[in-house]
C-alpha cells in the first residue's frame, strides 16, 4: 500500500501545484507573451521536478541506495498519477478558469503560421518584395484549410490529450534519466 500512497501523494501535490500555477499565470496575465507559451514550460517543470522528487524520495527511504529498477518503478508510479492530475488540471483550466484559452491558442497559432507562410510564399516562392492582396487571400485560405483539418487540436479534449501524451513522455524520460543517474548499490 505504501508503494501506491507515496507516489499518489507526490503526484497529488504536483497536480495541485500545476493547477495553482495555471491559475496564477492566468490572473497575472502572462499567458501568451512569448513565442513558447509559459504553459509548455510549466508542465515540463512540474513533470521533471515531481518525478525526480519521487525517485530521490525512494533513494532516501532506501538509506541512499537505489537500483535502477527501484528508481524507475518510483518514477513511473509518480508519472502515471501525475499525468492524470496534469490532464485533469488542463481540463479544469480550459473549461472553468479560462474558457477562452482555446480561442487564444488558435489565434496565436494563426498569427505564427500566417507570418511564416507569408514569408515562404511571398519572398521565397513568388520572389516579391511587397505583399499583394492576392497573396494575403491565398495564405489566408490555405491557413483556414489547415486549421480546419487540425481542429481537434483547438478543442478542450485536444488540449487534454496533448498534455496527457506530452506529460507521459516527459515523465518516462525523466524517470529513466534520473533513475540511471542515481543508481547506488550496496557493496
Which descriptors apply to this entry?
80% helix; mainly alpha; elongated; 187 residues
Per DSSP E runs of 2 or more residues, the count of β-strands stands at 0
Mean pLDDT over the full residue set: 86
Order of helical and strand elements: HHHHHH
- Principal-axes geometry comes out as elongated
Q: Which range does the strand content fall in?
A: under 5%
Unreliable segments (pLDDT under 50, ≥5 consecutive)?
none
Structural class by sheet pairing and helices:
mainly alpha
> Helical residue percent?
over 70%
Question: Counting H and I runs of at least 4 residues, what is the number of helices?
Answer: 6
Query: Ends: how far apart?
Result: 29 Å
What is the topology?
Blueprint: H1 2-28, H2 38-61, H3 68-97, H4 101-125, H5 133-149, H6 156-181
Report on this model:
- With 187 residues, the protein is an all-alpha fold.
- Helices cover 80% and strands 0% of the residues.
- The chain has helices at 2-28, 38-61, 68-97, 101-125, 133-149, 156-181.
- Helix 2 runs parallel beside helix 6 and helix 3 (68-97) packs antiparallel against helix 6 (156-181).
- The protein is elongated and about 75 Å long.
- The mean pLDDT is 86.
Amino acid at each position: 500500500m505504501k508503494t501506491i500512497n507515496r507516489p499518489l501523494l507526490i503526484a497529488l501535490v504536483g497536480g495541485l501545484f500545476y493547477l495553482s500555477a495555471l491559475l496564477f499565470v492566468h490572473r497575472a496575465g502572462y499567458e501568451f507573451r512569448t513565442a513558447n507559451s509559459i504553459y509548455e514550460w510549466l508542465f515540463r517543470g512540474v513533470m521533471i521536478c515531481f518525478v525526480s522528487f519521487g525517485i530521490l524520495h525512494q533513494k532516501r527511504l532506501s538509506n541512499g541506495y537505489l537500483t535502477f529498477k527501484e528508481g524507475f518503478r518510483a518514477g513511473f508510479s509518480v508519472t502515471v498519477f501525475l499525468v492524470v492530475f496534469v490532464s485533469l488540471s488542463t481540463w479544469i483550466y480550459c473549461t472553468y478558469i479560462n474558457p477562452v484559452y482555446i480561442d487564444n491558442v488558435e489565434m496565436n497559432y494563426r498569427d505564427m503560421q500566417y507570418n511564416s507562410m507569408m514569408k515562404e510564399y511571398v519572398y521565397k516562392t513568388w520572389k516579391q518584395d511587397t505583399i499583394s492582396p492576392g497573396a494575403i487571400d491565398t495564405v489566408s485560405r490555405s491557413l483556414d484549410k489547415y486549421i480546419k483539418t487540425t481542429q481537434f487540436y483547438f478543442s478542450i479534449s485536444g488540449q487534454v490529450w496533448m498534455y496527457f501524451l506530452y506529460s507521459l513522455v516527459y515523465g518516462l524520460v525523466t524517470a529513466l534519466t534520473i533513475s540511471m543517474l542515481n543508481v547506488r548499490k550496496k557493496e
